[in-house]
Amino acid sequence: MHALPSGVITEVLPSGVKVLLEPLRDFSSVSVGIWVLTGSRDEPSAKAGVSHFIEHLVFKGTPSRTAKEIALGIDSLGGSINAFTSKEYTAFFARVLGESLGEAMNILGDITLNPLFQETDLAKERDVIIQEISMVEDTPDDLVHDLHAQEFWDGHELGRPILGTRQSLENMGRDDIRAFHRERYCAESIILTAAGAVDPQTMMDEANRVFGNVSSGSCPLRRSAPVSTPHLKIFTRDSEQVHFCLGMEGLPVDDERRYSLFLLNTILGGGMSSRLFQKIREEHGLAYSIYSYHSAFQDVGMLSVYCGTSAQRFTTALDLIREEILALAENRIPEEELAIAKRQVTGSMLLGLESTGNRMTQLARNEIYFQRQISPAEIEERIQTVSSAQILDVAESLLNPECRALTVIGPVREETLEGHWD
């Protein structure tokens, strides 16, 4: 085992699986995760949603455990277990007391590597996911983000919804799912992370036992970068509110300018003191929900503003949002406002690190995107050194009117935007 200056211990198992551990004193719990480097952008169109489908199905049983035994196994430890699928990876994780780390690893490893994929479970979970799709469709403030990505990266895998579609799910059989699992859930694609009350030797012993003989994959990732598509797309719907996303080019997750963008996003719409919140909600009372966010991926990014407002106030809100964006692209941030944003970003990061789950996740994301561990001290230092001139440079580069895209759901027609969108 190799210890980094940050206190993180790294190891590569004989099979090629990577292990990263962060033992933390004064914690009685440990969060442990299995990260598989495949997500919805890595799926062929005919199998759209297969990564998320697998995430559901692994909890339905293995040759040695039924679904109920999996649940009871974690509950009996007083712990919790969960999973999620993203565009670029799938994660399975548990939180237990440190003394139960070995048992939790055993359960996580079993469900991840040995799912049964029984036909009866496929039919039930397919119906469950279709209901999940329907739930998103009935929730426009969720749906607008999926539609926005779909239009922004038109025709590219990165723009597809993680859940897949009804058609792709209906056409996906057991052989398709097993083949995708066999190809992607391989040694080169698996990272194990744990943070908290982790005993390194216990973790390594269990990791070697469960993952020591994982086979190599037969289908390496071949990702292509999408090209953003400026657009105006309106999904007319008879609803009480208009929900819309205004999007612009962002930065890849490892771009050196990311710290400037963190602060730019915070100032624009990252909290209650942000310019958009103060202008749209506090000053004009146009919306309950208004915020900006940055979606960063391996090779691209998207900076977006979301707002939910009434049809009568839609164009007023849009005009004001565009004014605030233009102001950021044309003027330096006042030093006092920048100092507040820096404290907000660093404070949020440090508070988040009080969670073993967040620390475990940070270990994985650092390895996935940077192939090294970036310490909180390094992040804080990089944020503190960002100048208002650097933020302006990023703003001038990204907040370009020619690159903007607008996706709208609600009782709106294109003529509503005459004079408000060009």
Entry summary:
By secondary structure, the chain is an alpha+beta fold.
Protein model, in words:
- This protein has 422 residues and is of the alpha+beta class.
- Helix content is 43%, strand content 20%.
- The chain has 15 helices and 14 strands.
- The protein has a seven-stranded mixed β-sheet with strand order 1-2-3-9-4-8-7, with helices on both faces. A five-stranded mixed β-sheet has the order 10-14-11-13-12, with helices on both faces.
- The relative contact order is 0.15.
- The model has no long low-confidence stretch (mean pLDDT 94).
Write the layout of secondary structure elements.
Layout: E1 2-3, E2 9-12, E3 18-23, E4 29-36, H1 50-57, E5 61-62, E6 65-66, H2 67-75, E7 80-85, E8 90-97, H3 101-113, H4 119-137, H5 140-152, H6 166-170, H7 174-184, E9 190-196, H8 200-211, E10 231-236, E11 241-249, H9 258-269, H10 275-283, E12 289-296, E13 301-310, H11 314-330, H12 335-352, H13 356-370, H14 376-384, H15 388-398, E14 405-410
Parallel strand pairs: 3-9, 10-14
Antiparallel strand pairs: 1-2, 2-3, 4-8, 4-9, 5-6, 7-8, 11-13, 11-14, 12-13
Helix pairs in contact: 3-8, 9-12, 9-15, 10-11, 12-14
The number of distinct helices, counting runs of at least 4 residues, comes to: 15
Shape: globular
Percent of residues in β-strands:
15-25%
SS-based class: alpha+beta
N/C terminus separation: 58 Å
Helix content: 40-55%
Gyration radius over CA? 23 Å
Indicate the low-confidence ranges by residue numbers. none
For the largest sheet, list the strands in their spatial order: 1-2-3-9-4-8-7
Largest sheet: 7 strands, mixed
Number of strands: 14
